[in-house]
Structure formats: C-alpha cells, structure tokens
Amino acid sequence: xxxxxxxxxxxxxxxxxxxxxxxxxxxxxxxxxxxxxxxxxxxxxxxxxxxxxxxxxxxxxxxxxxxxxxxxxxxxxxxxxxxxxxxxxxxxxxxxxxxxxxxxxxxxxxxxxxxxxxxxxxxxxxxxxxxxxxxxxxxxxxxxxxxxxxxxxxxxxxxxxxxxxxxxxxxxxxxxxxxxxxxxxxxxxxxxxxxxxxxxxxxxxxxxxxxxxxxxxxxxxxxxxxxxxxxxxxxxxxxxxxxxxxxxxxxxxxxxxxxxxxxxxxxxxxxxxxxxxxxxxxxxxxxxxxx
Amino acid sequence: xxxxxxxxxxxxxxxxxxxxxxxxxxxxxxxxxxxxxxxxxxxxxxxxxxxxxxxxxxxxxxxxxxxxxxxxxxxxxxxxxxxxxxxxxxxxxxxxxxxxxxxxxxxxxxxxxxxxxxxxxxxxxxxxxxxxxxxxxxxxxxxxxxxxxxxxxxxxxxxxxxxxxxxxxxxxxxxxxxxxxxxxxxxxxxxxxxxxxxxxxxxxxxxxxxxxxxxxxxxxxxxxxxxxxxxxxxxxxxxxxxxxxxxxxxxxxxxxxxxxxxxxxxxxxxxxxxxxxxxxxxxxxxxxxxxxxxxxxxxxxxxxxxxxxxxxxxxxxxxxxxxxxxxxxxxxxxxxxxxxxxxxxxxxxxxxxxxxxxxxxxxxxxxxxxxxxxxxxxxxxxxxxxxxxxxxxxxxxxxxxxxxxxxxxxxxxxxxxxxxxxxxxxxxxxxxxxxxxxxxxxxxxxxxxxxxxxxxxxxxxxxxxxxxxxxxxxxxxxxxxxxxxxxxxxxxxxxxxxxxxxxxxxxxxxxxxxxxxxxxxxxxxxxxxxxxxxxxxxxxxxxxxxxxxxxxxxxxxxxxxxxxxxxxxxxxxxxxxxxxxxxxxxxxxxxxxxxxxxxxxxxxxxxxxxxxxxxxxxxxxxxxxxxxxxxxxxxxxxxxxxxxxxxxxxxxxxxxxxxxxxxxxxxxxxxxxxxxxxxxxxxxxxxxxxxxxxxxxxxxxxxxxxxxxxxxxxxxxxxxxxxxxxxxxxxxxxxxxxxxxxxxxxxxxxxxxxxxxxxxxxxxxxxxxxxxxxxxxxxxxxxxxxxxxxxxxxxxx
Lengths: 291, 797
Ligand SMILES: Cc1cc2nc3c(=O)[nH]c(=O)nc-3n(C[C@H](O)[C@H](O)[C@H](O)COP(=O)(O)OP(=O)(O)OC[C@H]3O[C@@H](n4cnc5c(N)ncnc54)[C@H](O)[C@@H]3O)c2cc1C
Fold this sequence. Notes:
heterodimer, A: 5-stranded antiparallel sheet, 14 strands, B: 18 helices, globular, binds flavin-adenine dinucleotide
C-alpha cells in the first residue's frame, strides 16, 4: 500500500463554503472531487497538499446534465458514469458516450468527475479533448462571481488551468447547433489505459455539405488540441474520403506528439491522421443515419 | 499410450464431480478466498507490532557520501533508523544470493540500481514510517550508469561491482552447452541457414500481492517467527540460519496464503532481512509490506535475454542444427533463482521438440545498473526464453522455405519410439508423443479453414494471422545428484497421518501461491487410499509443521511433491494391508484392494474399509505381529529425472491496418501434462498462463531510460492484460504419462506462459507477411507493430 503524507481534510457543504475555505487556506489547499487523479499523485508523493477540501457532498448542487435550447450545461461534479449513461446527452453529443466507454474502468468512472478531469489538465485527458472538439466553455466561480472561458483559455499547459487559487470550476457549457453529430476514436495499449492518441470530431451539415466541423486531439501536445485548420478546410464541402484524408493530413501536421512508452512520435502523428479520418467519417455517418 | 480429448467451451456444469481421487472438483480453498477470509501476510496483526519502510535509491549508480538520520530519529513515532553502516557492524550488510553472488541488504559503499535499499525506518505505524523516510538526508555522488547491456563490457564502462575483489569489468559469467565444432560442421554444409536477432525483454512477475513479512523475534527464547511471502519456506529458513547466524531450530518460517508468486517470491529480499533486524533491534514484531512501485522496481525481474538464433536445414525442411549466442542482462547482482549448476536455468532445452544433429549455445552474462533478478517467472527456469527462441526461429525458417509452419514442425518432431530421447545438449526427455497433440490443436482450430479464411481476407487487404508454437518443457527439479539450491538438494518430504476416525492430514513441503494444492494433493492421496478429499487436510507453508523440501516454482510441486504424496499414501496403504489381514484373518496375499477397502479375494463381502483399519490401528485390539500402532508414514522423494510436458498452441489474430492494434481473436491450447489429477485446476493454470503470455507478447516490459530510471514502476506504466484483451480460451489435452513418476503426472503450472508468447508473436508476424518482414520483437504494442508494417521493426532495447 502506498501511503500519502499527512493532510487535513474538510468536507464542503456548498460551493460558497468550498470557495471560502480555498480563500482562507490559500495554495496549500486542494479540492478533491473523484480523487482518481489526485489520490494516486498523493500516494506517490508527487502531490502534497496540506488541506483537502472534499466537494463530493456538492454532487447535488453540481452534478447535472441540462439540455436547454441552444446549449447543454453539465455540472462539474457530474461523474463519468453519469455522462456514460445519459441517453439525452448521447442523443445530443454521441461523442460523450464514445469517449466514456474507453475512459478508465468502471471503478474509476463511478467516482471520477467532469470537473476533476478538466482541472487535472492531463494532455491525454479524454474529456478535455471532447470539450475542445465541441467548443465548450468553462464556468469558473470565485468569491466575486463567475467568469466564462473557452477551452483554449482554460488549459494553460500540462497540468495547468485558468482556475485561480480561490476559484473552482462549476460548469461546462456546450453550444448546440442543428444538423450536427459527433464521434470519438481512441487507441490505447490496453483497456483502461490512457490514450496513445485520441481524436474527437463534431460535424454540422446543411443539406449535403458540411456547414462546420471541429476536431480535437488528445495526447499529441502539451494540452488537448483543437485543429482549426480542419474546420476551414472542410467547411462548405461535401463529405468524401478525399476530404477526410485532407483533414487527417492537417491534424497530423498540426500536432506536436512526443515519443514515450506509449509510442513513437511518428506513430502518434499517423494516429492523429487515421483517427481524425475515422471520427469525421463516423460523425457524418451518424448524421446520415438520422435523416 | 497417448490419449486425446478436449473440452467444449460451454461444458463447465460438471466441474464438481466429487471424485474420491482424480477428477474435476471445486477447490477446497476457494470458499475462504471468495469470502475474503484468506489470511495473507498483511493480515497478520500481532500485539505491539511496529511497521517498517525502506528508503530506496533515487538514482541508478552513485557513491554514498553521507547519510544523516537524525531528523528521522527525532520523529516522535520512530523507533529505529538503520543504515548499511549499522548493518555492517553486525556483519549483515551483505547477503548471499541464490546463485552464489552477494547482494547488499542495505547499501554501504554505492547504490547500484534505482530502488536499491539504502536505509530503513521502524515506526509505530505505516504512515509514520513512510513519512520518516523523507527526513533521512542522503548525499549521493552520482556516477555514470551502465544501462545499455550491449555496452556493459566496453573497456571504458564504469565498473559496477567494485565490491568484488579485483573486479575490473562488468562480466558476470560465461556459459556454454552443446558441441560448437559439430554444430559448425553441420551449419557449414547445410542447404539453408537462417539467423535472426531475437530479444526477450525484461518483464516482471507482478503478483497481485507484493512481497512482505512480519518478523517476530523473541529475545528471551532466542526464537524467530517469520510470516513471509515465500514460495520456499524451508529453503528460506536454512538461508536465514546461514545468513543471520540464528540456530535453525529456533527459526520458524510461515508462508500463509499467497497472492501469487510466479517465481518472484523465491529469492530472499533485503526487506525480509531488514524486518528481522528491525525486530531484533526493537524487541517488537515488525511488519513490512512493499508497495506496488517497490515491487515492480526492486524485486526480481525475469528474462532480459538478447539472443542471436541460427538454424540450419535442408531445402526440403529437415532441421539439422540450432545455434545461439546470448547476451544476458543480470542487473546489479546475480540473483538468478535456479539450481546452482544451471546458471542459465534450463535454457539448454532450446533444441525444442525436434530431432537435431547438433546444437550449441554460448552465453555471456553481464552486470548493469538495474534491479537484480533473473527469477523463474512462470518460466521453468528460463525455458520460456528457450522455447521462444526455437519456436520463433523455426517460424523464420518456414518463412524462408515458404513452408507451412505446422508441416515443418511435424516433419522434425522427435518420434514416439525415440523416447527416452537424449537431446544434443544432454537433456533426457522422459516421454512424448507430439504429433497427436499437434493434430488435436489443428482439429479444434479448424486449421485448414482458417488458412482459407486468411487467404480470402488477405485478398481484401485485411491482416489476419495464424501462429503456432509447439513446446517441450523440463520441469520437476530435480534429481539431487544434479540439482541443488545453495547446496540444498531438490528432494521433497511428505508426511501422511490417518486419524482414528479415518480422516487424514497430509503435510507438504511445497507452498501454494494459488495453484490449488489443498485440493490437488488431497486428491492425490485420495486416489491412493480411498479417503474422500474432503476428509483430507493439507498442511503446508509452515516449517514447524511440515517436512523439509525446496518449495514451489519451476512447475515442480506435482512432479516432486506430488510423487511424494502418492508414495507416502502407498506406504500407509501397505501398512493398512497388514492390519487388514489381521482383521480379516487371511494372509496379505489373499487381500484385494479396491479404492477405500480391502476384501478377501473372491469374497467381496468380507471387507474392511480404510476407516475401519484406521480405528483398529489406533484401537485397543491386537495388531498383527511386528506392526506398530498408528497409521502414518513419512517419505522424502528424490526424483529420478525431470518430467517433460509438451503442448501445441495455435493463435489467431487480427490487426487493424489503420492503427496497427492487435486483437487476439482465438487461442487454442492443447496441453499434455501426463496424468491429469484435477482437470479443472489444470485448465485454470493454463488460462492464467495464456493471459500472461498475451501480456508479454503484446504489452509488458520493464524499460529504463538512459539514466537508469525504471519506466515500469506502476501498473499504469507496466501493463498487464485484462479480460478485455484475451479471448475465450479453447483448451484440449493429450495424455502421455511420465514413465518414472509414480502416477505419471508432469508439471503444468508454467506450460502456458512458456508456450503462448511465441504462438502470439508468430501469429502477428504471419498477419504481417504481406509487408515482407520475418521478425519483430515483443512487446508488440501498436506503435511497434506499426514500425514493423513500415518495414522498420525495432528491437525494444
Ligand atoms: C486507473 C485509471 C485510469 C484512468 N484512465 C483514464 C483515461 O483513459 N482517460 C481519461 O481521460 N482519464 C483517465 N483517468 C483519470 C480519471 O478520468 C480521473 O477521474 C479524472 O482525471 C479526474 O477526475 P476526479 O474527479 O477523480 O478528480 P480529482 O482527482 O479529485 O481531482 C483532479 C484535480 O482537479 C482538481 N479539481 C477537481 N474538481 C475541481 C473543480 N470542480 N474545480 C477546480 N479544481 C478541481 C483537483 O484539485 C485536482 O487537482 C484514469 C484514472 C485512473 C485512476
């Protein structure tokens, strides 16, 4: 058994309580949500917070998936399992279910949260890639109220976010547009492993041309990466294998993978291409199935 | 006589046939495991028990300049802090390894691998012990590490083992077997010679339960009780007596339930010795349990052979000779767990299942700045490497000859009438009948249809592969004239006692790590004396309660202790026969044994059961002249030879051409382990070993960066397969009994780990044939398969 260093612990009873505690305790305090990223780091003594503020009791307040006209709002404490099982969410954005099927294992999914995933800011994190793909925005709350940032602004580097010392992430907002669908493709060395590379795609069609499309990649750079060039390249065109290939080439060219135990940089670049094609193809197929 | 059969996939209803003897029955130990009532080392709680944590080196190679323990000692919950210097004063800083080298218990002069033990803390609880490690200040003078095994013998390489007097290089040992000249002559005149560089990467046994112990030293009695995660409690007791100078009769080693061993719990690790010292110093029981990272980075690794394989054959596929040159990485200390005269374990069986004219192996072993080991990780002492080498190189030959790999193998099999067969490296295979086993596997697989399907799919650009391996193992070490571990002969004791009411207890020297000994050994005894397995208690793992023997590893329990159990039961039966003759008032010659009772020949009604006899043996009535009371016996079994199980494995894989991911679609395993005692347990052993094989073939590897940092220190980095990576196993069997084993049984615990990696790798390479490549090394991760698909397969080290 790996054991963490001594730590003081308090359960927050409301978001305001949690923010109050964060403000009082400063940078030596850490929020703990599902704990599936933070606790392993504490056990390995890579993280050594002096105080833990447990926000699991805020699941009532921050655990929700709300489908509204024009947007979907998801609370930061929504657990992987709830994202996986929500039929409404799968209807609006099948990419969530695709991704959740291949994130970790049931034990982790029962506890791990959307907020924790995004705040961990691991470059291989799947939900970050999903949110990047969907152009989501993040709602950060502090004592003085809320601010909303884009995914690009939210992630500032590996394991670094826009959330300040006395702030927390409370919600993710995903814009809903008509005629769209989405998909997620991941290659891992073994079930439950982090991605070697994964790619999300979202496509919106008008008639038989692509009105807009977005691609988000995980594990090929310091943070999950959106590939804006893809959107430009496919907008206004009819879906075709050549088009997917062009998008794949763009993804491969515009990512920055590194060689590690999961695979070589060359292979990851190849996967960026291959998975981008597959995700786009599947998104379009899903739209076509609907009509 | 070989018999053949297999079990359909869905036939599990009859797993509990309640046999009185051999047959399918559920495991006696399972109710306690399933209900969470097993008792493992970490479950042992003693009054006043303290906890130990070990400080480990963060670097691979460094001189220790100074160690300051004062802050740790000042921690309010700390009871003792011990460094190498303190151990050196007691003469305990170094200990012998199982292969005649020495290993530091705590580093005194230098650290030689990342994770090496530097100091330990004993404290009131586990948390405090761990916290106090951070208060120890060690100053290291970092030295250049030797990580690339190919450069270990460069004259300029830093010398790792300067503790050994006069040591000027990193050479560990040289070893050879076979006939170099005869082999060269065959190679020189052969039609076809194929050679290939084949790497078996470093892997780790990674048992679910890490290593650990509870040491309880009684200062008044001078008695040490040690609960420890040991696959060989008796051998460990003797070694503690030798190392620590404690009298052997005052040492009791208890190996309670073990959560897997796979060879990793054969050696004595520094942590055990530290815990003993901790208990002696504090006068309290001390518990030490490794965490997962410590287990993966510091306890015994396996494999790590770089092999050049060469095979010579005629153009029509007659294999003539095999030759190999091996570079073996032994890490910082030579910790190989194998019989002393076998520094490369049983690698000498690399000639496989084929009738050859010549063979030769030359091996060079070196030291590097990596964790020591070379443990028998479910490999029957390096037979895994040997089988991988021969089965891979035979496939390379098939590739060059454009021959079907099964046809090539069958053509070269040792024939049934050649047994006992002496190989070109001197091993005497006791028995075997290979072709029926191979044919059985082909039949279950539907081999011809699979080849047709493959042709169809290939035409459509799909990548489907069919791989085969055929192995012969050498297990059951071993005859004491040849085999010992640190001078302890590899014979096993066994004791059987039948109580007055006809229940029995059998005491074994071997220790189960999950193999189901409590069931199998009860069945072996039941078969011989007719007492139901439920009425036979199996006692093992406690040196105070069991006879001496060398422990469980190398698939030796059934070949050695299984033979002992059968023979001790026969001894009891012989005595029972004498008592029965008195009870029935006939001569011994007029008695007939039918499992569980004796009756008078020709008059089955005149009969006494083994239970009647047990009561008489302990009762008040007269016994035949010269017969002592009681019904018990003891034996020490010295095997005449090893046993040689074999098997034929076929694997079917599909590779995604876009992502290079390998999916194992089917796996057919036909094993021949001679007499099958409990087929369900055999299948369980095979299932586990096959899963292990998928791990090694596709994902497992302990890698290092160039500074010697271990990159496999957690189960997120060192991958082991899950149920999602493996197919439904399809098993079959043939039965070729061992001629010298009392019940004809051979070992099977490691067969699947030995036999499956080459089948999987061969399947992947078969799938990749359209890319024109012949070989790629394990682990075949997607990235490495993709390299192979582009024609640039890379060795993993
Ligand atoms: C075995 C295993 C396998 C995994 N595999 C995958 C995988 O394949 N793909 C994948 O994407 N992930 C994977 N994960 C990570 C998993 O998804 C984690 O649950 C997730 O990354 C973190 O969520 P959490 O709620 O557990 O966060 P925690 O561990 O509780 O917190 C993580 C970090 O976020 C901070 N934090 C949490 N909530 C908030 C908030 N609301 N506001 C501000 N800061 C906050 C914490 O302070 C901490 O720094 C795996 C984890 C494990 C243990």
